[in-house]
Amino acid sequence: MPLWVELVLRIGGVLVAFLTLPLLVGQAEHKVMAHMQGRLGPMYAGGFHGWAQLVADGVKFVQKEDITPREADRAVFRLAPAVALVPYLLVLLVIPLGPNDLVGQPLDIGLFFVLAVVGVGVVAVLMSAWASANKYSLLGGLRGAAQLLGYELPLVLAAASVAMAAGTLSLSGIVEAWQPWWLLWQAPAMIIFFVAGLAEIRRPPFDMPVADSELVFGYITEYTGLRFAFFLLAEYVGIVVIAALTTVLFLGGWQGPFADDQLGWLWTLLKIFAVSFVIIWLRVSYPRLREDQLQRLCWLVLVPASLAQLVLTAAVRIAL
Amino acid sequence: MSDPSERGDTSERGLPGAGLVKGLAVTLKTMTSRSTTQQYPDTAPDLPPRSRGVIALSEENCTVCMLCARECPDWCIYIDSHKEEVAVPGAARPRQRNVLDKFDIDFSLCMYCGICIEVCPFDALYWSPEFEYAEYDIKNLLHDKDHLGQWMATVPPPPAHDPNGEPAKEETAAARKAAAARPAPPAVRPEPDADQAPAS
Fold it and tell me: What is the pTM of this model?
């Protein structure tokens, strides 16, 4: 296969995943949340149980007027949605779907790359918040910045624990090194990574930056139309990315009950959707954490716990 | 599960995090149980028998006593009538009778209190559960007597009497009348007195 064909195939695959997985997760959120609240959710769009609801939403967003506030910093304001979206696209590039290089771009320092790129999200938050010239946006953005900076630490430490256990920074390498008993060994790290990941993508119960009952919509307040849709899309891609990272790092990625070589991609996708379901489930079940509770959870629980997990991982590694 | 958002409350709730798990269980149970939502435009709603949808008029029962119009808190009932002489053959002189000319209810003003239906002594007004009479022009919400008469077809039969409720006034009155007609020992005094008499 010539290089360019392979390149087009890989990039096309990632793009398709980038465009379809978030829609699937979004639709699942609509329906799961509705049924958890004793409702039916969308039932009309597309005919069968509202399967085309998000497509209809997308069409609606495209038709809306794209407003930039007069006082806003135009260039920064208009750039922010892209900055929010692109890092997740880049992350999807290196997440392995199956064995034998079934991945957008195999990377030896995949984990390092992923953590670095996910960290760019805080820039988008601050850009949109500051450029909106809106006090709600600014409040939301500063909350978001404090939250993202704080939770970055347990996220990285938990990921470091599993990297240490596997002895590699390559995501594929981590999946290959993974063994079922790691579920127990790395359980604290998994919970810490998952919780910190939730906070990282500003999902409820960590949605203080966009707390819609007090801050209108936080840093997204001034956005309309397609740019608003980009922020929403970024949120759903974020779910996919966090679910995929949790899967790859802690749940064994493509390792399934049988036929890992042929069905590896299926196991990975199933695990991603299961973790996404838990993310939606948590959103429906729990109220939003207050700002001080949010910071307390991060600094007094997750950071010490992740440090303890690092010590545990190191001890077990040396003992083995 | 160790979540510090629960801190301080652990003593009264048992295990730390038990509340978090319970919350997850509630949502999961709700998700797996069937939703009771009725898809309204597709399926007709299941309305209770005393639903207050629209007021129906049984024109032949109306004697133009005007009680409904006078009791209406919103003054949304408009009644016009004229008198008519009815000559009954064999009677000493012709009788006079009220004839209903106009009976309008303005549903843009009506607050669905049902007082008109309560006060009507001749059962000329009824609740109907029909509710799909929205209009594009507010003027069309003024239903005239023909329109109100059309709702009569939708009035459900009255619900069965509650077996534990007290009997209807008509029943007790009839029973009393029957008892009085019979030459029974006259129960003039109320019962509580009769009970207390031997005790004192």
Answer: 0.76
Domains and CATH numbers, chain B: 54-154 (3.30.70.3270)
Amino acid at B145: K
For chains A and B, CB pairs below 8 A equal 44
Q: Is A297 on the interface with B (CB under 8 A)?
A: yes
Helix (H) or strand (E) holding B82: strand B77-86
Backbone φ, ψ for residue A286 (5° rounding): -110, 145
**CA dist., res. A104 & res. A10, Å (int):** 5
> Which chain A residue has the Cα nearest residue B6?
A293
Instruction: Check if B43 contacts A (Cβ < 8 Å).
Output: no
Distance CA B184, CA A150 (A): 93
Tell me the nearest-neighbour CA distance from B29 into chain A, angstroms: 8
pLDDT by residue for chain B (200 residues), tens digit each?
444 444 544 455 578 888 888 888 888 988 888 888 888 888 888 888 788 999 999 988 888 889 999 999 999 999 999 988 888 888 888 888 888 899 999 999 999 999 999 999 988 999 998 888 888 999 999 998 899 999 998 888 887 778 888 888 888 889 899 888 876 555 555 555 544 444 44
Tell me, yes or no, if A293 comes closer than 8 A to chain B by beta carbon: yes
Smallest Cα distance from B111 to chain A, Å: 30
Alpha helices in chain A (DSSP H): 3-36, 53-63, 74-94, 110-118, 121-131, 135-166, 171-177, 182-185, 187-200, 225-250, 260-285, 291-296, 303-319
* d(C-alpha A155, C-alpha A190), whole Å: 10
Number of domains in chain A: 1
Which token pair is A108? 């030896």
The answer to whether B145 touches B103, Cβ cutoff 8 Å, is yes
**Hey, is the C-beta of B21 within 8 angstroms of any chain A C-beta?**
no
Q: So what's the ipTM on this one?
A: 0.74
